[in-house]
Amino acid sequence: MKKIAFFNNKGGVGQTSLVYHLAWMFSDLGHPVLAVDLDPQANLTAMFLDEDRLEEIWPDSGEHATTIYGALDPILKGIGDIAPPPAEMILPSGLFGTTLGLIPGDLGLSRFEDNLADAWPRCHNADEGAFRTMTAFHRLMEAMAGDWAQVVLIDIGPNLGAINRAALIACDYVCMPLGPDLYSLQGLKNVGPRLRDWRGTWAELVHKAPRGLSLPAGSMNPLGYVVMQHSMRDTRPVKADQRWMNRIPPVYRTAVLAEPESPSSVRVEDDIHCLAQLRHYRSLMPLAVEAHKPMFHLKPADGAIGAHSDAVNDCRNEFVRLATMVAEIAGVTLMRN
Questions:
Q1: Which residues contact 255 (CB under 8 A, 6 or more apart)?
Q2: CA distances from 237 to 11, 231, 321 (A)
Q3: Is 80 strand, coil or helix?
Q4: How confident is the model over 219-275, as pLDDT tens digits?
Q5: DSSP letters for 52-75
Q6: In what order do the strands lie in the sheet with 33-37?
């Protein structure tokens, strides 16, 4: 099982939509996938579940037993370890068994921030409770994925706080969604050094952990980046977007990969670290939201006719290529093509 987090220090680039669509595409390709919502805003959960189900898992009583917050409740109350993991089977059956599951998010997850911030320094003192807190996300994902999911896609918020640190420590790879703008480039410059710092510190801390506790390796290997929502004119990005896109390769190499200064002549379309350039499907997203399905599942009955139908096919092809590339780099074998 490979755990892949999607993260950048800049929000609003369409990251949650990327995780949602990629999870569906992995499932379409016959690959069992678990989506995990570790962003306290819980937008990924809202994309997967309808409002009736959201009302059930986010009750007024505050007892959120079927969300990530409910699973962490014993730690939050100081009365025990993680509870049985929540489970939402989006596609509970198929040729290969369960093909798409979700660990639902919860706005209450933000309350776990202080616990994680307090646990990090206490791990230096070999505190068992601190290690159980720091590894809670990892152990929940391991328990939920079991022996059925072979890839875990994790959506996290655009910040460098304690929740994201614990989420990233739990992952094997980090994919960075970027917008064609200055803010995403600045986000890269913040994220790269922080990932290296957390990776190095965790590598030291694992030697102090209690025996028998399941620990993540904390590898956080850079998987690559995805350029999101650029505008097109004919078959090429518009000049305003292309300007910023061409600045991504050298910044990614120096800030994230810690490589020496690279030539700015490397174009994003030729960059081996660019996993995809996903255009802005402005006409499809409203239809997908209304139909409560990914854009590449839209049918004529959903309003995908004429030019919309062509856009659906283009969207499907883009996500097939992206899922295939992600699987190849992460060492995941797709079951069918």
A1: 188, 189, 191, 192, 193
A2: 21, 6, 19
A3: coil
A4: 999 999 999 865 544 455 566 778 888 889 999 999 999 988 665 667 888 899 999
A5: HHHHHHS-TTS--TTSHHHHHHHH
A6: 88-91, 100-103, 33-37, 151-155, 2-6, 173-178, 221-230, 274-279
The enclosing domain of 281 has a CATH number of: 3.40.50.300
CA distance 15 to 289: 16
Q: Which domain holds residue 306?
A: 2-330
Q: How far apart are CA 210 and CA 66, in angstroms?
A: 29
pLDDT digits (tens, 9 = 90+) for 50-60: 999 999 888 77
Provide the pLDDT for residue 336.
Answer: 52
R_g of the chain, CA atoms, integer Å: 20
The answer to whether position 335 is within a domain reads: no
336 is a domain residue:
no
In a 10 Å sphere around its CB, with 0-12 CB exposed, 13-18 middle and 19+ buried, how is residue 270 labelled? exposed
CB atoms within 10 A of CB 195: 22
Q: Is the dihedral of CA 230, 231, 235, 236 positive or negative?
A: negative
The fraction of the chain above a pLDDT of 90, given in percent, is 69
